[in-house]
Amino acid sequence: MAKLLPRKDVVIMGLGWTGSILGQELTAAGLDVLAIERGPWRDTANDFNIGYMPDELRYAIRKDLFLKPADEAMTMRNNVSQTALPMRDYGSFLPGAGVGGAGVHWNGQCWRYDPSDFIAKSHLTQRYGARKIAELQLQDWGVTFDEIEHCYDRYEYLCGTSGKAGVIKGQVQQGGNPFEGSRSREYPNPPLKRPYCASLFEEAARNLGLHPFPTPAANLSRPYVNPLGVAMGECTYCGYCERFGCANYSKSTPQTTILPVLIRKRNFEVRTECEVMKINLHPDGKTAKSVTYLDEKGVECEQPGDLILLCGYGLMNVRMLFLSGIGKPYDPKTGQGTLGRNYCYQTGGGGATLYFDDKRFNPFMGAGALISSAHDFNGDNFDHAHLDFVGGASISSGQTNGRPISGRPTPPGTPRWGSQWKAATAATYGHVMSIGGSGSSYAIRGNYLDLDPTYTDRHGRPLLRITFDFPDNDIRMQNWVGAQVEKIARSLNPKILTTGKASKGWNAVPYQSTHNTGGAVMGADPKTSVVNRYLQSWDVSNLFVLGASAFPQNAAVNPTGTVCALAYWAAEAIRDRYIKSPGALVPA
Amino acid sequence: MVGVAVMLAAPAFAAPDPARIEAGRYQAILADCIGCHTAPGGKAFAGGVLLDTPFGKLATPNITPDKATGLGNWSAADFRAAVKTGMAPGGRRLYPAMPYPAYARISDADLNDLWAYLQSLAPVRNPVNVNQLAFPFNIRGLMAGWNWLYFKTAAIQPQPGKSAAFSRGEYLVNGPGHCGACHTPKNLFGADTAAALTGSALQGWFAPDITAAPRRGIGGWHVSEVVTYLKTGHNSHAMATGPMAEVIENSTALMRDADLAAIATYLTALPGDGAAPAPLSAGDARMKEGALVYDSNCRGCHNSGGGGQSLIFPPLAANPVVQQQSADSLIRVVLAGTQSAQTARAPTAAAMPSFAWRLNDVEVAAVLTYIRNAWGNAAAPVSPDAVTKTRRSMPRH
């Protein structure tokens, strides 16, 4: 029998980016908010010590800050004809754990999606006809770029994002991304200093008629105090962003932007090391009553709440809905059902590595988003009429790190160990740059999420099963963009140039990207979406599901900016409409 | 109604006026009662804070109105006598860790308000073994002699020709604020010396000079910068950490702006000693080693040039805390780490980690010698022995 606890106005599951944003917004609206977090409390002062944070073995190789498979594993397969097996170690993607979630260890590439991304299906249908996208299961988001522009703005100012606007109030700005949606104002901080590789890339791209610009970075180019009064320091370009907490208060994370304020509030409480087991519904099945969780001592507790916010990592949100019996499971055979639908990822491959004798890049100086990009071949910024794909990629070059264990490029043909390898790493270090393409990932009928029929977690609950392979459309897209990358790379006359190709057969072992999207997607039609345009469950009106699980398909660039913009968007709807009149914000 | 009448009749006085309770709450802020009478994680005003005095350990008493363990059986007159003369009911003498020599200046009316406020709190049962001193200091009667020697209760008259703000500031600093309890050097018997507010050792820290001394004090600070510091814990010169961070969080950040301006007016008008040693030359071996340690451990946050970063990493150049006669606070911060004050206006509370595991005593001494003599700073070098001594005094992690 679970211990019944006093009710709260709001119960948040997961205290990462979205949980922190909702916590801040709803406590500001006067509600009594509880956050339940599976992992430990983490703050800069205690957990991201400048003395030991730059420990590549502990944090990057042994993945100290990440979710452990023993706590929650997942199974994977490439298609329905295979039997899924559990991932015994997270490799292809690395979900976060603990307070701050994946917001602790991200690189800080703080993007907005393009206006056409939010209306992918209708836009592409209108421009190219329905046949062009027939092999895909594209959907519109139910919300437009212009509707959430101010939410992107809030997030960028919360973070102190360093960047250069490309379009302000419809006016193209010199030096920014001319393809971006029109924004209301400039970034709060100027771009980070340009590393040499990015300068070379920008010059080469410009010479080929492209429009390179500094990648918007949630790494601070100067000291900053955000609108909540929280101060951040200037990035030191130490090169320990991705997989690490920032010891310098220079990377925007829940810890460096919101939590110092939120944690002081009397109407906010966080319970860490408490694992939610399921969401309980009222007998009518249409509203949530409470959540059941195991506290830090393993005692089962029932926490009632008027409003339940699912704020975990996208994949875990989807699993929690399955485990709670909320929503109709998606069936890839019929295309019916919504829960688990439109799982997407990020398309990689097609990058170029350039080896020089006469150029020194000092790669030990870096930052997670110390990158320049060009969006001439992103999304639908170029004409696909005579191409055999839709979608595109962000082409970029930058210097995120040159760490001693993994930052050791060697030319092709070098042995993998021994004195020749040592000599080659020494000779090559500092003389290599790369140009990559991060590509869109579009939904197809066969890629989806559900519960595994065989494997269970330590509590006996089924694991999440991922059925995914890179769609043919995305492979064609990525390799076409790869050819454009190669043109840029060749123009820089490297001594050696190697290039890669995108290929079928998603492999869960090598790291690719922690940009898992979909499975509880948003939309205007309850037949094809789990949540409405405000991220409110169609089935359970006092349940909102935040995070990238809401993306109907994934755009080419990093999702965090859009995840957090949507969090502000949902918070506004709750604050301005739901609190006054609880119930469905959109009639089903 | 009968029940209410009985409740009202029980005490010998009428139910206190809410305005008086509120006024008393503010008196508790001015006097920072909570700072000493609330244990970490404990109930407010329930006592139990261990004070590490040069004479041994004292635990602060429970001042909630609990009859068994607090002040539930005291009268207002008992309270006034204890706060102003150090004499508790039954002739029990308080130790001057309770700053009654400063509190003696608080008016009876203000103390009555404070009493009304304390009486309005919920009683908390929390027995505290106050006197943990060793012989002979555990003999409370000794305080009679101490009082005879050092306790001067003469009411201080407003200094002629000074502004109302100055006079109010003088009262707040030397009366309820009891700033001298930490910042005024003590004699062998723990009593204030005449060098008021020029800095003093305190529980392993050094409470800095807060006169208008140009280098060690706050002579370079504008009145508004002193106010910002007391209000937020931060200004462009320094950040509060350690015991002062607690004072700011519990007391000064909650004071009225006019009172903060009064304190600032008074402190910035206190003449201070501007004398300083000649800085060590950059060629000094300790300075060279210190510069290396600084570049590889400190510069990322405190910057080349020691300029720090606004509201998050304090500047070291021209920071008075860095140039005190005693480097105790600096040694402690480097070895143990510290966290800056967290206030509503400056919520970040950035922290410096411990470097005890990473730097040896010679390196700590060198880097502190360096920051005390670089960028226009000047202060005595720090010896490795002083670092060793502090390191030994710290609990091992």
Tell me briefly what this model is.
Chain A has 588 residues and is of the alpha/beta class. Helices cover 23% and strands 19% of the residues of chain A. Chain A has a single domain, classed as 3-Layer(bba) Sandwich (FAD/NAD(P)-binding domain).
Identify the most extensive interface between protein chains: A-B, 23 and 23 residues
Termini Cα gap of chain B: 59 Å
Tell me, what's the shape of chain B? Answer: globular
On the 0 to 100 scale, the average pLDDT of chain B is 89
Biggest sheet of chain B, in brief? 3 strands, antiparallel
Topology record:
The complex is a heterodimer of chains A (588) and B (397).
Chain A: E1 3-4, E2 8-13, H1 17-28, E3 33-36, H2 44-47, H3 56-61, E4 74-77, E5 85-86, H4 102-105, H5 115-118, H6 120-128, H7 145-159, E6 167-168, E7 171-172, H8 196-207, E8 212-214, E9 224-225, E10 231-232, H9 254-257, H10 259-262, E11 268-271, E12 275-281, E13 288-294, E14 300-310, H11 314-323, E15 341-344, E16 352-355, E17 371-374, E18 393-398, H12 418-428, E19 432-439, E20 448-456, E21 462-467, H13 472-491, E22 496-499, E23 517-519, E24 543-545, H14 560-578
Parallel strand pairs in A: 1-14, 2-3, 2-14, 3-11, 4-21, 14-24
Antiparallel strand pairs in A: 4-5, 6-7, 8-17, 9-10, 12-13, 13-14, 15-23, 16-19, 16-22, 17-18, 18-19, 20-21
Helix pairs in contact in A: 1-14, 7-14
Chain B: H1 2-9, H2 18-30, H3 33-37, E1 50-53, E2 56-59, H4 76-85, E3 87-88, E4 92-93, H5 100-103, H6 108-120, E5 131-133, H7 142-150, H8 164-174, H9 180-183, E6 200-202, E7 205-207, H10 223-232, H11 242-250, H12 257-267, H13 285-297, H14 299-302, H15 328-336, E8 338-339, E9 351-352, H16 361-373, H17 384-393
Antiparallel strand pairs in B: 1-2, 2-5, 3-4, 6-7, 8-9
Helix pairs in contact in B: 2-6, 4-6, 8-12, 10-12, 13-16, 15-17, 16-17
